[in-house]
C-alpha cells in the first residue's frame, strides 16, 4: 500500500492512503502527540472531514488492537517463507533469573542468534522491545530464529 507523507510545518505530519474501496484517508500526527483520522472524496486532502481525534495514549491503544494480530500473522508468514526460520514464545517466570531485569541483560541475540521481536504483557504488545525494557513475570517473549536458537533463549530466560 502506498502511503504519501506530507510535512505540515508547525503542525506535524499527514499520512495519506486509499483503501481497497478507493476511499481516501489520512492520519494527521500532530506535534502535540494527538492524532486525527480523516476521510475525503476526490483528490484534495484539504477538504478532509475529521472522523475522530485521538490522544497519544488512545492512538497507542488502537495501534495495539489493530497491530497485535498482524504482528503474529506477519511472523508466521515470514517463517513459512524462510527455510530454517521459526517463531516461538518464551514465558518469563517469576522464579526465573530475568524477571524484573532489563531485556538487554539476557544477551539473548548475542548468545543464541535468535531475536526477541515482541513482548506480550497481558493485553499489551510491545513490538521491537529495546534493551532497557524491564521483563516482568508472566511476560511472553516472541522469538524469531532457528529452533535451536529459540530453545536456547528459553533456557536463558527460564534458567
UniProtKB/TrEMBL annotation:
<dbReference type="GO" id="GO:0006813">
    <property type="term" value="P:potassium ion transport"/>
</dbReference>
<dbReference type="GO" id="GO:0008324">
    <property type="term" value="F:monoatomic cation transmembrane transporter activity"/>
</dbReference>
<dbReference type="InterPro" id="IPR036721">
    <property type="entry name" value="RCK_C_sf"/>
</dbReference>
<dbReference type="Pfam" id="PF02080">
    <property type="entry name" value="TrkA_C"/>
</dbReference>
<protein>
    <submittedName>
        <fullName>Potassium transporter TrkA</fullName>
    </submittedName>
</protein>
<dbReference type="InterPro" id="IPR026278">
    <property type="entry name" value="KhtT"/>
</dbReference>
<dbReference type="InterPro" id="IPR006037">
    <property type="entry name" value="RCK_C"/>
</dbReference>
<dbReference type="InterPro" id="IPR058776">
    <property type="entry name" value="KhtT-like_N"/>
</dbReference>
<dbReference type="InterPro" id="IPR050144">
    <property type="entry name" value="AAE_transporter"/>
</dbReference>
<dbReference type="Pfam" id="PF25991">
    <property type="entry name" value="KhtT_N"/>
</dbReference>
<feature type="domain" description="RCK C-terminal">
    <location>
        <begin position="73"/>
        <end position="159"/>
    </location>
</feature>
